Amino acid sequence: xxxxxxxxxxxxxxxxxxxxxxxxxxxxxxxxxxxxxxxxxxxxxxxxxxxxxxxxxxxxxxxxxxxxxxxxxxxxxxxxxxxxxxxxxxxxxxxxxxxxxxxxxxxxxxxxxxxxxxxxxxxxxxxxxxxxxxxxxxxxxxxxxxxxxxxxxxxxxxxxxxxxxxxxxxxxxxxxxxxxxxxxxxxxxxxxxxxxxxxxxxxxxxxxxxxxxxxxxxxxxxxxxxxxxxxxxxxxxxxxxxxxx
Amino acid sequence: xxxxxxxxxxxxxxxxxxxxxxxxxxxxxxxxxxxxxxxxxxxxxxxxxxxxxxxxxxxxxxxxxxxxxxxxxxxxxxxxxxxxxxxxxxxxxxxxxxxxxxxxxxxxxxxxxxxxxxxxxxxxxxxxxxxxxxxxxxxxxxxxxxxxxxxxxxxxxxxxxxxxxxxxxxxxxxxxxxxxxxxxxxxxxxxxxxxxxxxxxxxxxxxxxxxxxxxxxxxxxxxxxxxxxxxxxxxxxxxxxxxxxxxxxxxxxxxxxxxxxxxxxxxxxxxxxxxxxxxxxx
Amino acid sequence: xxxxxxxxxxxxxxxxxxxxxxxxxxxxxxxxxxxxxxxxxxxxxxxxxxxxxxxxxxxxxxxxxxxxxxxxxxxxxxxxxxxxxxxxxxxxxxxxxxxxxxxxxxxxxxxxxxxxxxxxxxxxxxxxxxxxxxxxxxxxxxxxxxxxxxxxxxxxxxxxxxxxxxxxxxxxxxxxxxxxxxxxxxxxxxxxxxxxxxxxxxxxxxxxxxxxxxxxxxxxxxxxxxxxxxxxxxxxxxxxxxxxxxxxxxxxxxxxxxxxxxxxxxxxxxxxxxxxxxxxxxxxxxxxxxxxxxxxxxxxxxxxxxxxxxxxxxxxxxxxxxxxxxxxxxxxxxxxxxxxxxxxxxxxxxxxxxxxxxxxxxxxxxxxxxxxxxxxxxxxxxxxxxxxxxxxxxxxxxxxxxxxxxxxxxxxxxxxxxxxxx
Lengths: 245, 282, 422
Fold this sequence. Notes:
The complex is a heterotrimer. By secondary structure, chain A is of the alpha/beta class. Chain A folds into two domains: 4-151, NADH:ubiquinone oxidoreductase-like, 20kDa subunit (Rossmann fold), CATH 3.40.50.700; 162-244, no CATH class. Helix content of chain A is 37%, strand content 10%. Chain A contains ten helices and five strands. In chain A, helix 3 (62-74) links the parallel strand 3 (52-56) and strand 4 (77-81). The radius of gyration of chain A is 19 Å and the shape is globular. By secondary structure, chain B is of the alpha/beta class. Chain B folds into two domains: 18-106, Beta Barrel (Elongation Factor Tu (Ef-tu), domain 3); 119-241, 3-Layer(aba) Sandwich (Rossmann fold), CATH 3.40.50. Chain B has helices at residues 86-92, 129-141, 164-172, 197-201, 218-230, 263-266, 272-275; strands at 18-27, 32-39, 52-57, 61-66, 77-82, 99-106, 119-125, 149-155, 176-182, 192-193, 210-215, 238-241, 257-258, 261-262, 269-271. In chain B, the strands form three sheets. A seven-stranded mixed sheet of chain B has the order 10-9-8-7-11-12-15, with helices on both faces. In chain B, helix 3 (164-172) links the parallel strand 8 and strand 9 (176-182). By secondary structure, chain C is an alpha+beta fold. Chain C has three domains: 5-72, Orthogonal Bundle (Multidrug-efflux Transporter Regulator, Chain: A, Domain 2), CATH 1.10.1660; 79-142 and 160-277, Aspartate Aminotransferase, domain 2 (3-Layer(aba) Sandwich), CATH 3.40.640; 289-420, no CATH class. Helix content of chain C is 39%, strand content 18%. In chain C, the strands form three sheets. Chain C has an eight-stranded mixed sheet with strand order 6-5-9-10-11-12-4-13. A four-stranded antiparallel sheet of chain C has the order 8-7-15-14, with no helix packed on it. Chain C has a three-stranded antiparallel sheet with strand order 1-3-2. The longest helix of chain C is centred in the C-terminal third of the chain and has 20 residues, at 368-387. Chain C starts with a strand and ends with a helix. Chains B and C meet through strand 4 and strand 13 of B and helix 1, helix 2, strand 7, helix 9 and strand 14 of C.
């Protein structure tokens, strides 16, 4: 029997769901191996008898909390996809300002109608079984996770930092251009996409399990950068981490 | 002009596994299964006690696993596998008749010649009994060649005890002094309780004629080695087998390097005297 | 006499026997042979001719032909024949010549450095470079290499077919060539690995003189060697390159390039240029290379390792850019059909958290200080002893590219002081 699969989105840009549809070459194979029972962006079917739930976006309101708890109850396996769901992502920036201020800024005089909460990654609200990191999530990562789940094994989660893939791609180091790159502390798996296109690593895949922040802070300070500069870099995508708070 | 490809003295196909069929699977503890395997080409594995193979499961990769059976028992060989990672978990799901890949045997194995005529004190902790069993059964199958045989076996709890049938046979064997212990007992456990060194303290050994063969987790080595030293065992009368990450088994991938040596080539069996000064050994 | 080399298949074909039979002749001492770094037999034409005559077998004319040609040259002439002058303007023609038989890789500018890339157009080539981000190691040991293709249903597995067209590396610096010779040693040691040597034995290496920067230290580790491992070596003597021919395969690709024999002045210029390559303005290694193994051993407990460890990001860069690091990880990829897939190896680094972890999570080298110490020992002590020279080739890449500015040269110097104070 094909596993039943559902896709849900929370606070996010829905770009990760687009990435799934971008798996053009593999899409047919994936669709023939699973039964999609709930995918707002792609089908009109809405069922709750799913085995695997792929969840995009972060949790930022009481209704979000209620919905994700229901999804968790229904799903045998819950996979958080994309930075918003896995780490809180950019939405996390909200938590560094007073909640009321943010609410008024966004909703103006209608702010009273909208309940809001500090942003949390999905894993801080319900149990997450697997994570597919990145902003947006990486296609290959997604295919690896689907393949793993279909064949009943643990999906592979890259543990080394972006530098490994960046050096392998033979990119010049962003630090040599006086830039601050989060590659040395960020979980790889993206193939060092940003540095390969002459940009710094923004840390969208979150920190590695044991980021060497003592060394990283030294490196940044040595280059005349203030603690505030460093925090700003960390906060963009890694606001969840202690080091950013 | 490019040189034509010519007959190479390279050993070809270092990384190509040989297919082997699972003849029998037995659950030996809640986390360990014993697999009996036969190479599909009909050949014997041809291993030494203490050697290991790289087990290959396509889609999962490879893992180094000690051969647990004695080479004296021909035709098939046994691997005792703990479900600890992706590959070993998948292996646990395989039924009898399934095919897996085997490369090897690799490593040096125990020096069965050197031990001839000697009294042997086997000390196994946890799944350390797996490679040790290969040598124990080899010695028992060649009983006349070896002296007094003592086996000490310890696990954390009774649930982790391996090869219970065989342990019974060793216990009943009049030529073997078999003793075992658990760190923590349960309501059904009536045997000895305490870490493995407590068994060692009660033992009368003749360090001059005895070789101690020790296999267990890193923490066990620390205490057993101290205890053996206090019983006047010479360092070169202590033999150990070490666990390392081994990706290739043929001395290329670099993972198992311990100071200047490759555990997959120079080990996994070592005379303690050789490695005692290696900071990375234990 | 000629130094033309024959392979076992050449001889097997001529004698109407299998290559195994030829190998057995070699092993029994009937036929004298030498071997390539990859452990493949090569037989000098003159030895083969002797052998054929001894056993009354006919000698192929083209083997004799080479022999007589060579005999006609005097020693002096042939030495001059091995040192030619190639105008720089003719380098594109050299690339074109190479491309007939090889995939040609050479350095091109990248960012603030350079990189070896496959040359589709000789105009991209920048032979006058300082260093590349990755060493040409990547051509003999690619960052990712397929080991097997498999099918989980039929349980079929096979090794992929090697590339048919061999690779020529143009513009290799002596330090990087020395790196490849060390990799040869590693992959030959114990069981020689055909995955590596299938590629390596067919490669052509053309060296160039270099422009050392402040991170280079080849002369401290004795890797400023211009005639080891190369097929040709190009020394920059101004308007031209002085081409030293080191093998017949090298000589072959120079045909029709408009070279002329080098004169005394050219040879003088070559000597001066090579001297410049070995002179380093930057950091100097205080301890001599031969004392480093002992220093590494005596300095095992030195306090400096803790300091280096706390600065290290454990990002793996130092290993990945090193010409002599060869450690690899092996991973399987299963396709979405859940049947077919491949097993590949990937460069790995002993500085990464998971490198020395076993199943269950125990790591045998947890501390960053111990990983850095391991790297230092691997370069100057462990394999160095067996090889007879340091496994650090002084290319300076790990120094240049370390974000945390950890310098193996400084470490060596500090270690000497630390051990002196112990």
